[in-house]
Write a structure and sequence with these properties.
This protein is an alpha/beta fold. The chain folds into three domains: 5-175, Molybdenum Cofactor Biosythetic Enzyme, Chain A (3-Layer(aba) Sandwich); 180-256, Alpha-Beta Plaits; 261-306, no CATH class. The chain has ten helices and 14 strands. Strands 2-1-3-8-7-6 form a six-stranded mixed β-sheet, sandwiched between helices. The chain is globular.
Length: 308
């Protein structure tokens, strides 16, 4: 993504600094920001420490237009994001009666008693817009501070993603002035990164080096193309890019906007009206597992034998 308006992601949670948990929310947030012309220039993880989170908020808001925070909105003592935002912005926290009602209703609907600690989730930073949580309990917040936008979302991924799409993206669209950024991912198999670089570098001047990203991983290379601006023009530009890259990549192009080689293979087989069965030995069923991890694989995959 090139020359986007600067944005940042801040994940709050001591568990994200350990060995067993990763911040995956920032991936969905980055995609959403990119769709509306914002470029993530930094992703940061901070422990459950009110002063540290407040310092991070102040520092990041000094450099970006949009800051999206995830985590720390629950009812326990280590959920300190609300307090950290209030401290950073110099605002107070008030218990919102409407939010209290939402929380009480959420617990009641689950047939659970309403714990006293849950009242903490009804605390709202003064001047914030409340973002209802339709998938859980803890609400989010949206705070405008001068020309900056601060968004605070739950850390639970499915709650966060629903709130991001439903409440935050319309705000990003308004601030983005109608401009959008679109991407297309070309998946290549049987090649390596430097080989792809040699074949596509002649297109950099034509389409802009910053609009092309090469990502290498085990067994595949992904070529991410992007175009921004007015939606119709951006989509037309992206289609032009795809055709040019198809010409130089040839048969090594396995699929477009697919997650994996197995998804690309199954899609090609289905398009050709073909089915697939496998026989495995030392893989111990791994090939079958990877194929059946793809939603809808049963339309093509008949089954397999493991003779290990």
């Amino acid at each position: 993504m090139a020359n986007g308006r600067p944005a940042a992601c801040l994940a709050v949670g001591s568990e994200l600094l350990g060995e067993s948990r990763l911040d995956s929310n920032s991936l969905a947030i980055t995609r959403a920001l990119g769709r509306h012309g914002f470029e993530v220039v930094e992703k940061r993880v901070v422990a459950d420490d009110e002063l540290a989170v407040a310092a991070a908020i102040n520092e990041l808001l000094g450099r970006v237009e949009v800051l999206v925070i995830t985590g720390g909105l629950g009812p326990t003592a280590d959920d300190i994001t609300r307090e950290a935002i209030a401290r950073a912005l110099g605002r107070g926290l008030d218990v919102d009666p409407e939010v209290e009602g939402w929380i009480r209703a959420a617990y009641t609907a689950r047939g659970r008693p309403v714990p006293e600690a849950s009242r903490r989730m009804a605390q709202v930073v003064q001047g914030a817009r409340i973002l209802p949580n339709c998938k859980g309990v803890a609400p989010g917040m949206l705070v405008s501070s001068e020309d900056r936008l601060l968004v605070s979302l739950p850390g639970v991924p499915f709650e966060m993603e629903d709130m991001l799409e439903r409440e935050v993206e319309p705000e990003l669209a308004l601030r983005g002035g109608g401009e959008r950024r679109f991407t297309r991912t070309l998946l290549l198999g049987g090649v390596y990164e430097s080989m792809v670089e040699e074949r596509v570098r002649g297109l950099y001047d034509r389409f802009g080096r910053d609009n092309i990203t090469i990502l290498a991983s085990s067994g595949v290379v992904r070529l991410v193309l992007s175009a921004g601006g007015e939606p119709t023009g951006a989509q037309r530009r992206l289609a032009e890019m795809e055709m040019a890259f198809r010409d130089v990549l040839g048969a090594d192009l396995a699929g477009v906007d697919v997650a994996s080689l197995e998804e690309a293979v199954l899609a090609d087989l289905e398009a050709a009206g073909m089915t697939l069965a496998v026989a495995e030995s030392c893989t111990g069923g791994l090939l079958s597992a990877r194929l059946t991890d793809v939603p809808g694989a049963s339309a093509v995959f008949l089954g397999g034998v493991v003779s290990y």
